[in-house]
């Protein structure tokens, strides 16, 4: 029996689409060529002693080399630690020591910044287009391209011994508080979880529907759940893949046009930046990680961008994707709104929204509760953190730490991180919904709602606004007031204060950094 | 962790599509109602002692009751034996004894024919719309609807203990020679294998592309690989399902129109019969099991039917589906031809075409070899038949017994069963290709090419033709001759004889019965 393991994904391209391209900077490789490079790399790495269970840290933007490492390490049964380069240096080192990285593969993009690591990690492989790129001063160091050039191009017998329950990779979450947490993925978990997103996207006609004719460009970095599965999916279906490396938004637009990119993934802040660029054609975009404001969604639609929203994360993998309900006309404003807020659990996934007693809340479109998730690809917990694991993973369920609610038609709205929600007079105020409403005001660029401690109510909401035109607190209050009568918000949701700022700080993952905002505005 | 097991497929409909319909005869059930019936049935069956590992034989056409049994038995961890009602009575009894059926669930459609079984099998459940349908004269007998009515509607704790490697079902293949062979499917095998077909169909734009908006009607019976996965897929995506029961082709057409059916599966002979019916709208059809002739494919296209061809089987599950290559215009005659003959292995599946020495043959569009298949859902072999298993399943590969070849672009053509191919002068003549070419002649209705023993060449091809207009052997020879110059066939492929018949016998699975034809024409 063939195992459900990562390296099997790419073998099929040899028969179905050997000439299809992977584009990475100036490098254009066919799948057949890429497969040859993977085999040669894997054979070289085997000679270096990398094999079953070896922990290999990789620090790179989205390049063909990072992609190749996915498949070569999979064949060897080694574990790929996709190093989260948006962590602070201290947290990054913590994650590498915690994971037990034996080898580091570092691209030239990062070599300048990570030299201090040479004292801690003795075995390096440097990845660069430059054949003479200087090696770091460590006991063992190679150039990646030398390993590819010197490797034998033949199948590895150990590849057939890798089991689908073996660990394929490990990732450390961006912690806004505390040290990063590691999550390990079995081959079958990462494949089933990541690919199910695309199966679901293919089965629904609206939004960012995928097909084998699409040209894919992930703007989510490989380190983050393998670019939300983009390290696997294009090869899985034999489609063209464009890797943006360290390209800035204007260069990304150039790539979209040059390579005929039709499908991208990105977080909403990247979408915001991309929409600031001149025209880039009718692309499809999968976004998520934080709520999409209706302002942004309308801007995107006006630009011919079809989008879908995803809900998931590194500690639960793929959970839900927005869909247009069957009784809603596909191109209506209502459909656009469903794509922005109304998600459906992926097939095989069960989502339960629960109150404090752990009982399911009514699916009435306004009762908010904690989001619990159950799926066949749920990770087993946090690596070497039994206590954190026990708190989050209970009886086969993952307590996501998110707040959400179900609409009567089964649409799931994920409102907030539980710790980001404002609790006023014992009631949760979903800041994400408030932010979405405020973003509809033409003068509002970015907006974040945080809780300010309040003697009487416990907490009261404060809106931090980055305006794009003249606007006052009174204007925004007046803008929100009618939404109370319309039943969209409760009167006590209206923020007590509006703070206007030049810029809103983002986390390493590109989300609004509410911790920093709270330190500044909620004291 | 949620297991990848059959009964989890339907739970999600409770949130996403509780009001979506399953139509079966005069019965219209929402998924929510169906789920309630499944729970009540499962609780009743539990009281009767049906539990982990109990072997339950089910004899029914495609009805909601058969569908419910899939999910109820899955929750109990029991094994569903989908009895192949196209077997001869002797073979059917053989399969039931070989599987070890403890309970028989028999619909009224079959009660007349199977009364002789009452002596052998003591525990019966009768399925009928008639609440007073007479019970058979056995020691233990119930009416299905009574069990549903009396059952408690609550979740079963044992449902959460079912593992994805547990056996879900067993099926006995239609043997044209020898006794039927049993193949057991684990939950994960049957789900991954069956659902991957639909994932693939959703990811490619041409042919029978599926989406969540489709209305599905399987004309493949549930006994055959769960109607090629149709027992799972509509629920998996929350789509409407129409079950045709024992409906004749004209009644099927009525159902298509009444219920808005957009997607069907069937074998080519069913397609042939359906095309004989008046207009039934623009439907999509998945077909396979035997090669589709180009005549039939053009007829279908002319009627607005979009079709895809599948390659797989009960002993390998889903393997390949026809696609239009990326460089072919989707609506061209060439695209139609690719949909008819050019398949791609499903993602995660590897197909290898080998010569007698076990070496891969060149992918040149004419070298024919034996088709070997490797996939994550390959069954483990034939139940209690170690010798047959050893012959067919080798080192993780399944030797399909089919002949095929690869086109240079990766398209897979499956020509024939190895045992059906004609071997002339040491070379294989792919009868399927010959049949397809002959079917292009306007006077040819059905055609089958078989081998007649020949002293000089070993075997020589004979074409058995069911004409729809006046035609002679000389006409057909003249029709084939130019194809030699066109490079489509070799000159020695042209049949030595043409036999004209009033009808061509079919096997129990609806394929042309070449065994019978050989007995008559190849001696």
Description:
2 copies of one chain form a homodimer. The first copy, chain A, is an alpha/beta fold. Chain A has 2 domains: 6-412, 3-Layer(aba) Sandwich (Rossmann fold); 420-521, GMP Synthetase, Chain A, domain 3 (2-Layer Sandwich). In chain A, 31% of the residues lie in helices and 26% in strands. Chain A has a 9-stranded mixed sheet, with helices on both faces. In chain A, helix 6 links the parallel strand 5 (103-107) and strand 6 (123-127). The model of chain A has no long low-confidence stretch (mean pLDDT 92). Chains A and B meet through helix 1 and helix 8 of A and helix 1 and helix 8 of B.
Shape of chain A: globular
CATH homologous superfamily caption of the largest domain in chain A: ANL, N-terminal domain
Low-confidence stretches of chain A: none
Percent of residues in β-strands of chain A = 25-35%
Domain module count of chain A = 2
Distance between the termini of chain A: 60 Å
Mean model confidence by pLDDT of chain A: 92
Provide a concise account of the structure shown.
The structure is a homodimer of 523-residue chains. With 523 residues, chain A is α/β, with parallel strands linked by helices.
């Amino acid at each position: 029996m063939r195992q459900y393991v990562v390296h099997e994904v790419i073998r099929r391209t040899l028969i179905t689409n050997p000439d299809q391209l992977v584009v990475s900077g100036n490098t254009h490789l066919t799948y057949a060529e890429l497969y040859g490079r993977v085999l040669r790399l894997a054979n070289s790495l085997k000679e270096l002693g990398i094999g079953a269970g070896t922990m290999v840290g990789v620090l790179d933007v989205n390049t063909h080399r990072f992609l190749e490492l996915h498949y070569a390490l999979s064949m060897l049964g080694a574990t790929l630690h996709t190093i989260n380069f948006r962590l602070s240096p201290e947290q990054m080192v913590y994650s590498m020591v915690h994971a037990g990285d034996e080898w580091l593969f570092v691209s030239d993009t990062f070599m300048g910044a990570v030299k201090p690591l040479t004292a801690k990690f003795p075995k390096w492989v440097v990845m660069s287009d430059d054949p003479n790129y200087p090696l770091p001063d460590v006991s063992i160091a190679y150039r990646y391209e030398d390993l590819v050039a010197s490797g034998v191009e033949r199948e590895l017998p150990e590849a057939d011994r890798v089991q689908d329950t073996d660990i394929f990779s490990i990732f450390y979450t961006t912690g806004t508080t505390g040290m990063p947490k590691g999550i390990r993925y079995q081959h079958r978990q990462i494949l089933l979880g990541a690919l199910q997103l695309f199966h679901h996207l293919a089965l629904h006609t609206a939004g960012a529907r995928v097909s084998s004719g699409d040209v894919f460009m992930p703007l989510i970095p490989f380190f983050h759940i393998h670019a939300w599965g983009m390290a696997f999916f294009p090869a899985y279906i034999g489609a063209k893949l464009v890797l943006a490396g360290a390209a800035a938004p204007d260069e990304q637009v150039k790539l979209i046009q040059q390579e005929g990119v039709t499908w991208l993934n990105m977080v909403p802040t990247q979408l915001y930046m991309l929409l600031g660029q001149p025209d880039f054609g009718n692309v499809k975009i999968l976004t998520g990680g934080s709520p999409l404001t209706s302002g942004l969604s309308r801007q995107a639609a006006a630009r011919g961008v079809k989008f879908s929203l995803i809900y998931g994360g590194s500690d639960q993998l793929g959970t839900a994707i927005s869909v247009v309900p069957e009784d809603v006309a596909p191109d209506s404003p209502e459909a656009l709104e469903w794509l922005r807020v109304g998600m459906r659990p992926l097939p095989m996934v069960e989502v339960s929204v629960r109150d404090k007693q752990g009982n399911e809340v009514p699916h009435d479109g306004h009762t908010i509760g904690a989001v619990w998730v159950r799926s066949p690809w749920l990770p087993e917990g946090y690596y070497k953190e039994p206590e954190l694991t026990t708190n989050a993973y209970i009886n086969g369920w993952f307590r996501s730490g998110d707040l959400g609610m179900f609409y009567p038609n089964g649409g799931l709205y994920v409102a907030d991180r539980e710790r980001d929600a404002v609790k006023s007079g014992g009631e949760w105020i979903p800041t994400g919904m408030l932010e979405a409403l405020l973003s509809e005001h033409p003068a509002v660029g970015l907006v974040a709602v945080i809780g300010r401690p309040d003697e009487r109510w416990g907490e009261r909401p404060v809106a931090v606004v980055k305006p794009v035109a003249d606007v006052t607190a009174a204007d925004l209050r007046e803008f929100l007031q009618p939404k109370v009568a319309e039943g969209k918000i409760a009167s006590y949701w209206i923020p007590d204060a509006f703070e206007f700022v030049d810029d809103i700080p983002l986390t390493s993952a590109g989300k609004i950094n509410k911790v920093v905002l709270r330190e500044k505005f909620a004291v």
